[in-house]
Automatic annotation (TrEMBL):
InterPro entries: Peptidase_S8/S53_dom (IPR000209), Peptidase_S8/S53_dom_sf (IPR036852), Peptidase_S8_Ser-AS (IPR023828), Peptidase_S8_subtilisin-like (IPR050131). Residues 1-33 form the signal peptide. The keyword Signal applies. Residues 174-413 form the Peptidase S8/S53 domain. This is S8 family serine peptidase. Gene3D superfamilies: Peptidase S8/S53 domain. The active site is at residues 181, 212, 366. Pfam families: Peptidase_S8. Keywords: Hydrolase, Protease, Serine protease, Signal. CDD domains: Peptidases_S8_4. SUPFAM superfamilies: Subtilisin-like.
Length: 420
């Protein structure tokens, strides 16, 4: 026969259960209070630095942060070169450590990569930067990814944007398109007749596949007598900088490399830059973008493919032209991010594009962005010399999609070529 007292002792009392629930709620509130000012706007953080430890929730595409020795998360500060000494002082006197520094000479900026031993050291640095280096921005050293997806075969892009036939429009060789992407195969047959400058900022031991960048490059400047791989801005020069590395099978680009690539292109006088990559909001990257735009750079980027009501960065930066993808029926790509920052839509679902070798069908906002960039190059060849002028030219021939003049699904609508 069982002992009633023993049975009662084996069950937790109501008072004990209430105490546990209250304790868990208090702990959750403490974590929320501790992290409320840190997660990037619109994205849930999976791996986020607080005193060297990851905290936060999960998302369909987790935010990743560059790590250094001891698995500590890195932070990046970008600011005017005149504030570089003050930034170094703010970090080191607050208990942090700068592990490397590089100059973005063309942008007039310096980038510092730092680590912090504790939350307190980070907090002191934030306060010191506000006082000593107010024009410098610090953010987690985020890792960005390609803005691509997969899909089923279809060929329709030239007709949808209003070109008479694939490859009919050429651009003056005086226009150079900058591209910040992954490794490129400049020996692809569709690039054989194009003027391509290529450099990589990635160690040779960590080079990923060249499919993505080769596709993006050929969509802009590819030359193919059959028309299948003819770029939308044939004749333009291409200046490509590879920033993506492969780590544990994942293709990734750090803010440091992206900012350095922007600096290299601006330093070489490139005024039109395509960014088919996506990640979280990053104030340090925003500082580099603002500096580039101040020198006349026109930046066009993919909105990202996380199926979120939040446009990814760098597309969401105010200086950048954000592009989404649509299919042959003018429907928005089901995985495309949406948001008020969107400006234009372009074919990006089942687009026939180059690969490292050969070709195939691809989907993603990654492949819509270069079509808009190519049309921007056409307008620049016709005299549009600023971001405002390019925006106005693109809007001048746009086909409105969705409600109103501009909406969060398509921006102003589908870009149209308006002729060569």
């Amino acid at each position: 026969m069982s002992n009633p007292d023993s049975a009662r002792r084996g069950r937790p009392s109501l008072t004990a259960l209430v105490s546990v629930v209250l304790m868990l709620m208090a702990n959750a509130s403490a974590v929320r209070a501790q992290t409320s000012e840190y997660p990037p706007t619109g994205y849930e953080v999976q791996e986020h630095f607080l005193g060297g430890e990851p905290v936060g929730g999960h998302s369909s595409r987790p935010i990743r942060v560059q790590r250094t020795e001891g698995a500590r998360y890195e932070w990046i500060v970008i600011g005017p070169q005149s504030e570089a000494a003050a930034v170094l002082r703010a970090i080191e006197e607050s208990g942090g450590r700068v592990i490397r520094t590089s100059e973005l000479d063309a942008l007039g900026q310096t980038q510092h990569i730092a680590i912090f031993p504790s939350q307190d050291a980070y907090d002191r640095t934030v306060a010191a930067l506000r006082a000593l280096a107010p024009q410098s921005s610090m953010a987690l050293h985020h890792i960005f990814g390609f803005a691509q997806s997969t899909g089923n075969p279809r060929i329709y892009a030239p007709t949808l944007i209003g070109d008479a036939a694939p490859g009919r429009c050429r651009v003056s060789g005086s226009v150079t398109i900058g591209m910040i992407d992954g490794p490129l195969n400049p020996d692809h047959p569709a690039l054989a007749g194009a003027s391509v400058r290529y450099e990589t900022l990635v160690d040779s031991h960590n080079i990923p596949q060249a499919d993505h960048a080769t596709a993006v490059a050929v969509l802009m400047v590819g030359q193919d007598p059959s028309g299948l791989l003819a770029g939308f801005a044939q004749g333009a020069r291409l200046d490509a900088v590879a920033v993506f590395a492969s780590r544990e099978g994942v293709e990734e680009a750090s803010v440091e490399r992206i900012a350095t690539a922007i600096d290299h292109l601006v330093g070489r006088g490139v005024h039109l830059i395509n960014l088919s990559l996506a990640g979280p909001q990053n104030e340090a990257l925003g500082r580099a973008i603002t500096a580039a735009a101040a020198q006349g750079a026109i930046l066009i980027a993919a909105s990202g493919n996380e199926r979120r009501p939040v446009v990814a960065w760098p597309a969401a930066a105010p200086e950048v032209i954000a592009v989404t993808a649509i299919d042959a029926a003018r429907r928005r790509f089901r995985m495309a991010n949406t948001g008020a920052e969107l400006e234009f839509a372009a074919p990006g679902v089942d687009v026939y594009a180059a690969r490292t070798r050969g070709a195939g069908y691809v989907s993603g906002t990654s492949f819509a962005a270069p079509i808009v960039t190519a049309l921007a190059a056409r307008h620049m060849a016709q005299g549009a010399g600023s971001a405002d002028a390019v925006r106005a030219a693109l809007r001048g021939s746009v086909e409105t999609l969705g409600p109103g003049t501009r909406n969060t699904d398509f921006g102003y609508g589908l870009v149209r070529s308006g002729g060569c």
